[in-house]
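Morning, I've got a small favour to ask if you have a moment. I owe you a coffee for this, so here goes:

…
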Amino acid sequence: MARAKTQFVCQECGAISPRWAGRCESCGGWNGMLEETFNSGPPKGLGSAKGHRVAFVGLKGETPEAPRHVTGVGEFDRVCGGGLVPGTAVLVGGDPGVGKSTLMLQVAASLSVTASTAYISGEEAVEQIRLRARRLGLGEAPMTLAAATSIRDIVASLDTPDGPAAVVIDSIQTMFLDNLESAPGTVTQVRTSAQELIRVAKRRGFAVLLVGHVTKEGLIAGPRVLEHMVDTVLHFEGERGHQFRLLRAVKNRFGATDEIGVFEMSDSGLAEVANPSVLFLADRENPVSGACVFAGMEGTRPVLVEIQSLIAPSVLATPRRAVVGWDSGRLAMILAVLQARCGLRIGGSDIYLNIAGGLRISEPAADLSVAAALLSSLSDRPMPEGTVVFGEVGLSGEVRPVSHTENRLKEAAKLGFTRAVTPKRRRGRGETTPGITIQEISHLSDLLTVFGIDAGTGAEAWVAQAHPVALEKNQSQPRNRGDHA
């Protein structure tokens, strides 16, 4: 009989080491090596028995497309690409308490009206799920419940001809296989449990939704191979201080990636937000300096969001840069371009940048909006009312065109905006949007005209007229060799 030996497996990346180490050599993570038992016997070879030949078919052919299971939760269906494809595996991850179980319970209850749905929980008892369902107003939903953690028992219950059309597993970290020595939640258990569930889902044709925990870095706990095994990876994001949640697709084999769904958390559960632009701009009243509305794209959906900035004199030797919802490295680039190409020396001030509402923006089209917010804060002049801004800024100060211009402008017009500051569009793409006056600029210095200042006046003269306190503070800083007068 083969002897059982031990090995140490990194819980972050799944790397295997024969001895314990405080730091994983593969991913660099600390204190993630856990001891697991494995069979040290030699693996069985193919032997003399012949395998079955694989049947090869041509690429051309008629394959009937199975209808998607529309859950009835519109924002969830949008992120999934129109519904759940039969036989698909969906991984939903998010921080503790963000509402993953609530979302999955609402999706399962809504889907159970049109298709048989099973909700299997490894964290809660059946009575606890019923209490939560009654609080959310879902007590009459015709779905089935189970509290189980054994993969062997779960697969035996699902591997039947009359099995459910969709199954929710909450969560994959609580599942275990009894023929593995490691504890539930370890790399081996998570990988093998997910593999068994996905295998039976593909064979029987039901959709399986796996709820996954996340680490302190925001990544889904378990080996990264888990994200490669599933068809769709969804991240459920949200701040405890904000009432809304974002469901973001980072991988989708049957739909668009980077698609988002917006939900609002309330006492009765998660409510869908059909028009998130209204939510992100709900608190805007009178125009204030340092604020600029950005027309962005999240997947296929245009979203309008407010970018806020504040420039204040610094009392520190190293001025502070605080960024929430945007890339801090990109902010440093915009500041450098404003200083080198536009002659604004604001490097000696504290700079704060915030994306209102807690949304995180990653597309380069926000560069021009950030620059406009910084100029508005520096001059203490608000942006003209009813104006949206978008465009990418290059290192030489040029403003580059971005994609989906018409969709951004249509969304702005729908919400009552009447003016847009955009990059110069390519020849032949000068379509107009009814109700919006478009001001096209080609260089970052042209942005001064938005505030009613002639660009030829000189940047520092403009700041001296608009905000002399800021100029006095900045003039006390040494001038760099690349600055323009």
Residues 41-46, 467-485 have pLDDT under 50 and may be disordered. The longest helix spans residues 187-204. The chain has three domains: 4-39, 74-274, 279-475. The longest strand covers residues 301-313.
